[in-house]
């Protein structure tokens, strides 16, 4: 069973991985296993050799979010083709046909899964290849295997002959400037990269750009996991376990931090940072819209700490302080 106190994963550090699998055409490094009824927040790296192809297919369940941490990928999605590059995000809900060709050696496909349990799928496939290799070539067996995993392979020709279009014509590919919604204030900017409406209502994915000195405190315990992916800068995390234990560490670019339920904690930006909130339970899009409206129409509500706390809890927000140090 995975240790829930394993807060920090440095993606390049083998000692931080849960599992490492060399599959020949790609290497898989598992970071966090899925958790909860929605099997959320599973994260891993798949590192591809140049020319590796994932044939055109779709899933009946499961949400896939891919951060391209290095390299470039030819993406065929819904019958259109474009090249996604370092810094782009690809988000794929169920029944979205897709296929890939990895163009550069060592392309890093940093993966975030929901309701798909990809790591178990890899174990299943490798079990078959190791013990029943002949079955993997049996069309009837493979049809059953794929159906059990909710995957439907399409004609390869679709992927091969799909027209090349600008990335802007494939909304599943999100360039760095993309945002469904954008909010900003003194020293911070938030961009909605993946909406709750794209994740079966289970969560949102936000990009946060934060100045040095920004501090966020969660001093009220809450029942949700938090999952952060740091892509720029340095961020200090202080996590309280019970009444005596305390974990303090600094996460740098290329790190992932997971905070378990009911752990009080503080997030301090040491050096101007960009991070992604990959497991956002807060109904943050709705909350930010409503806060802006209240601030314009009834600002006195936000001056009352009791009313403000009640308002935040309405959206499952357990932030107790947000400020910028001089």
Summarize the model shown.
Residues 48-102 form the Cupin type-2 domain. It is built from six helices and 22 strands.
Could you please describe the fold and organization of this structure?
The chain is of the alpha+beta class and 326 residues long. The chain has 2 domains: 8-174, Jelly Rolls; 182-324, Jelly Rolls, CATH 2.60.120. It has helices at 118-131, 139-148, 156-161, 284-297, 300-303, 305-314, and strands spanning 8-10, 19-22, 26-32, 42-48, 53-59, 63-70, 72-77, 80-85, 89-92, 98-102, 107-114, 151-153, 173-174, 182-185, 188-194, 204-210, 214-218, 226-241, 245-252, 255-259, 264-280, 321-324. Strands 1, 14, 15, 16, 17, 18, 19, 20, 21 and 22 form a 10-stranded antiparallel β-sheet that branches. Strands 2-3-4-11-6-9-13 form a 7-stranded antiparallel β-sheet, with no helix packed on it. It is globular. The model has no long low-confidence stretch (mean pLDDT 92). Keywords: Metal-binding.
Give a quick set of tags describing it.
6 helices, RmlC-like_jellyroll, Jelly Rolls, metal ion binding, 2 domains, 44% strand, Cupin_2, 18% helix, Cupin domain-containing protein, globular, 7-stranded antiparallel beta sheet, alpha+beta, 326 residues
């Amino acid at each position: 069973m995975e240790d829930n106190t394993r807060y920090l994963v440095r993606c390049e550090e083998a000692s931080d991985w849960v599992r490492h699998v060399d599959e020949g055409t790609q290497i898989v490094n598992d970071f966090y296993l899925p958790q909860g009824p929605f099997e959320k927040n599973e994260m891993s790296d798949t590192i591809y050799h140049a020319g590796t192809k994932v044939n055109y297919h779709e899933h009946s369940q499961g949400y896939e979010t891919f951060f391209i941490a290095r390299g470039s990928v030819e993406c065929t999605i819904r019958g259109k083709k474009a090249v996604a590059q370092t810094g782009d995000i690809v988000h794929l809900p169920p029944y979205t046909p897709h296929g890939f060709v990895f163009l550069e050696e060592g392309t890093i496909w940093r993966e975030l899964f929901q309701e798909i349990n990809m790591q178990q799928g890899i174990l299943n496939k490798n079990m078959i290849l190791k013990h029943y290799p002949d079955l993997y070539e049996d069309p009837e067996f493979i049809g059953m295997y794929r159906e059990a995993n909710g995957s439907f392979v399409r004609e390869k020709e679709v992927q091969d002959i799909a027209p090349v279009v600008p990335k802007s014509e494939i909304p599943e590919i999100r360039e760095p400037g993309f945002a469904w919604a954008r909010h900003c204030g003194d020293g911070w900017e938030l961009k909605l990269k993946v909406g709750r409406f794209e994740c079966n209502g289970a969560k949102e994915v936000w990009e946060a750009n934060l100045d040095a000195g920004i501090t966020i405190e969660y001093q009220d315990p809450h029942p949700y996991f938090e999952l952060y992916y740091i892509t720029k800068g340095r961020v200090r995390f202080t996590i309280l376990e019970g009444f005596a234990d305390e974990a303090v560490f600094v996460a740098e670019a290329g790190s992932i931090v997971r905070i378990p339920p009911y752990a009080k904690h503080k997030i301090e930006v040491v050096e101007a940072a960009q991070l992604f909130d990959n497991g956002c339970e807060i109904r943050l899009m709705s909350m930010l819209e409503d806060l802006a409206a209240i601030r314009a129409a009834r600002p006195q509500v936000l001056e009352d700490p009791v009313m403000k706390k009640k308002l935040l809890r309405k959206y499952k927000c357990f932030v107790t302080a947000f400020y910028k140090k001089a």
